[in-house]
Design goal:
The chain is mainly α. Helix content is 74%, strand content 0%. It contains seven helices and no strands.
């Protein structure tokens, strides 16, 4: 994918992460807006199919998790933000971004539990971790080490 759709997705994720941290809500203006602008940028760079495949893949994974948890694990705003991540980064890097978000979020939740700052069942807002995971995916794409070098061809479109 081109850097422009990625930059749009990152911008949307950072804005959504800040709003979600403060309010517990990710507005459609941010998630849907970032998806639309990232898709337009991808189309302009000839990467429409990669963007659509990425949005469908990442959005489907998060929608499935939302369905499995009956809406208790993820909000619909997280799912829609995942679509923006997938559109901006493509399927492989989008999955890397949400995987990183889950690892970071789990680490934070474990820290909260270990320090008695939260109890089991307390909600942890996921938007900030989607933003952090997306930033990590961007860094991984920019500087693929030996572990990620094999995934780089799948994360980019012509």
């Amino acid at each position: 994918m081109s850097i422009l759709p990625q930059a749009v997705a990152i911008s949307g994720c950072v804005a959504a992460g800040i709003v979600d941290w403060r309010t517990g809500y990710i507005p459609d203006r941010i998630s849907v807006g970032a998806t639309a602008v990232a898709l337009c940028c991808a189309i302009g760079h000839g990467a429409m199919l990669a963007a659509l495949a990425g949005g469908l893949t990442v959005g489907s994974v998060l929608a499935l998790l939302r369905y499995i948890t009956r809406g208790e694990g993820l909000g619909l705003g997280d799912v829609k933000l995942g679509v923006a991540i997938g559109v901006g980064f493509g399927a492989a890097a989008g999955i890397l971004a949400i995987g990183s978000a889950f690892v970071l979020g789990a680490g934070y939740a474990a820290w909260l539990l270990a320090t008695d700052r939260a109890a089991r069942g307390d909600a942890v807002r996921f938007g900030p971790f989607l933003a952090a995971g997306t930033l990590l995916a961007a860094v991984a794409l920019a500087h693929p080490g030996p572990l990620l070098a094999h995934a780089a061809p799948f994360a980019s479109a012509p």
